[in-house]
Amino acid sequence: MKILGIETSCDETAAAVVEDGITILTSVVATSAEMHRKYGGIVPEVAARKQVESIIPVLTEAMEGFSKDAIDAIAVTVGPGLIGSLLVGVETAKTLAFTWNKPIIPVNHVIAHMYANFVSSNKQKAISVIFPAISLVVSGGHTELYLMKNEHELTWLGGTLDDAAGEAFDKAARLLGFENRGGPAIAAAAQSYSSNSVRSSQPSASNTILKLPRPLMYDDTLNFSFSGLKTAILREWNKVSVNSLSTADHLQLMTLFSHEIQEAITDVLVFKTMKAVEKYSAKSVLISGGVAANTRLREKFNQQLTAYCLSLIAPSGELCTDNAATIAACAYYQNKQVNWKEITAQPDLSVEVAI
Ligand code: KG4
Ligand code: ZN
């Protein structure tokens, strides 16, 4: 079964053709991230306008080599996301479904992220997920934990009460003055962190043994909270007279903060996920979403999971961030076909599902 997936929930415009929920035949992603850079965040109207321009070229490229007859169904993200952006994908999918006479499969963007672990461009790749699995979806807008009983059945276990982990990375990065998009910028700076170099050349920062909170880490739920962390970062950053520092010292302070911010966020994500692993005697752990690209997060998971004789299942970098291959894969496993008249964009679509 070949499914054409369409994704336009945030600032990406993506289309992909996936066979039997596993093999990525084509996958095209266009992003308007560059256009938002100068504003320090995504501007919904700018994103939607760019998506209107990009959707036809992206679809044309994704359908190269396929006739409409080769496609069995059209999958589209209906939510959650930005209303203007979602409408572009949803109305395009409805038009195609009507003119091509194909069924449509509405997809929840957050649920779709976890199916990045089921797809591959390599036909030979076997799915190595052993169930029950715990799945952590950790992106710019969401931090959610699910129990996967099998490829089709899942239950929401907990999620963030306020900011998402990616949002915490992004906001911290803006505060520290990074120009690039949050998470990767903090991850890169944290990698070059060395406590010795910070201590020796940064007298005012040398005494800064930065210890940030790990919010909600030890509570009884499987929920997360990152807004308190953001406040703590702001408080600690404001204690330093950044303007009086040399450029080199300023940079070193940024690496110190980046290191501790990354440690705090990844500690909480791993601890809470492992709590779910124990509670549900999970046989696999899946991570997905943009933050799942974080190397330190993967390292910590691998360290923890070794003790349980489990290994981490994580997508390649380009499948962590928004794309349409995951939408088509999710549609294959969740396969709820509807008539094109029955779908609408749902910006507030709940992620607290039990399917
Ligand atoms: O899944 P995604 O592309 O979009 C949403 O659905 O939100 O995730 C984007 C998020 C951003 O917050 C970005 O800063 C974060 O993922 N991110 C990372 C890394 N790469 C992307 N965070 C930490 N470390 C990374 N290497
Ligand atoms: Zn996403």
Q: List the ions, cofactors and other small molecules found in this model.
A: 5'-O-[(R)-(carboxyoxy)(hydroxy)phosphoryl]adenosine, zinc ion
Major beta-sheet overview: 5 strands, mixed
Q: What integer value in Å does the Rg equal?
A: 21 Å
**Helix-strand topology string:** EEEHHEHEHEEEHHHHHHEHEHH
Strand residue percentage: 15-25%
Q: Which spans of ≥5 residues are poorly predicted at pLDDT below 50?
A: 198-206
- N-to-C terminal Cα separation, in Å? 22 Å
- The gross shape turns out to be globular
Annotation, overall tally of beta strands: 10
Strand order, main sheet: write it out. 3-2-1-4-5
Q: Structural class, from secondary structure content?
A: alpha/beta
Helices, by number, come to: 13
Percent helix = 40-55%
Name the average pLDDT. 90
Keywords:
355 residues, 5-stranded mixed sheet, 17% strand, binds 5'-O-[(R)-(carboxyoxy)(hydroxy)phosphoryl]adenosine, binds zinc ion
How would you describe this protein?
The structure is a single chain. By secondary structure, the protein is α/β, with parallel strands linked by helices. The chain contains 13 helices and 10 strands. The chain has helices at 33-37, 44-62, 83-100, 109-114, 165-176, 182-191, 195-201, 203-206, 227-238, 247-279, 295-306, 317-320, 325-334, and strands at 2-7, 12-19, 23-31, 73-79, 104-108, 133-138, 143-148, 154-159, 284-288, 312-313. A 5-stranded mixed beta sheet has the order 3-2-1-4-5, with helices on both faces. A 5-stranded mixed beta sheet has the order 8-7-6-9-10. Helix 5 runs parallel beside helix 9, helix 6 (182-191) packs across helix 10 and helix 7 (195-201) runs antiparallel to helix 10 (247-279). Mean pLDDT is 90; it is low at 198-206. It binds 5'-O-[(R)-(carboxyoxy)(hydroxy)phosphoryl]adenosine and zinc ion. The site of zinc ion has 5 residues, from helix 4.
